[in-house]
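ok so I'm stuck.
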Amino acid sequence: MLETSARLLRLLSLLQAHREWSGADLADRLGVTPRTVRRDVDRLRELGYPVNASPGTGGGYQLGAGAELPPLLLDDDEAVAVAVGLRTAAGQGIEGIGETSVRALAKLEQVLPNRLRRRVGALNAFTVPMLRGPQPSAVDPAVLTELANLCRDAERLRFEYSDHGGAPSRRTVEPHRLVCTERRWYLVAWDLDRDDWRTFRVDRVTPKPPHGPRFTPRTPPAEDLAAYVSRGVSTRAYAAHAVVRLLVPVEEAAERISPSAGQLEADGPDACILRTGAASLDVMVIHVMMTGFEFEVLEPAELTEAIRTAHGRLARTLARAAEPAPRTRDGAGRTPGTRSGSVAAS
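replied:
not stuck anymore, here's the structure
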């Protein structure tokens, strides 16, 4: 009986991949005969799972959509994966997600067998998230859902947007995708008023329904939208741009430089290229120095001059710090002509 239950769980997991499986493929995956697959499918139907079957040599099985399904069955690894996802969701910048995750974890633990409840309980009790840097403004999960639905349905979005200075504006866009990076959420959309692609921080978006009408989706601005958003928030948004070669492997650089701070590209096994932006070249010097890596400036040439100016300023500061303090005539640190404890009149 235990073996049959485990096989049903595995069969359900395969069907939930939302693709059509032939009976032969399922039998091969499960290590049983096609006849056993048919019996197991009948058992799933008895449990309330709508498994559709298409006849013929090209037919197969697929889990139906649109029906109320019984509680989802999870195998050991899937249960732990869900627990890890819920435990770390609090760091994703979604308002209220921490409390919601705790409630979901509590429900998950109630329906798990003892062996898994102990594993998930330990994971929850003895894990402390370490979040880097200041926490971003939280995103309303209802707004995320609304934007995702508009992307899916290809409906125009109307919203009020606050820029980094707090100035509001009304925008009408054709939403394309949501991108999440460093606990911030961004919306990539075609701005109808500016006739160009734009990236918007979701925590600054306030939807103003009604939305619509529907539109025909455009070709996206890049195949890799994560890289596209990274360029926008780390480089294009700033007045000064730079390209430097860091003299460390790209994997080591990625441990310190987030996608929102710059774009990294491998340049051989022991170096990488960093493309980044800053408010000015003077700030850029500090930005690159703070990576903690040796580097070479590729562009612009003006950055080299800014580094030279900063080097001179630092060298003069160090020279002054190395100079001995002026000593008084009596060598005791007292101003000539005064006695210990006396105060000179101003």
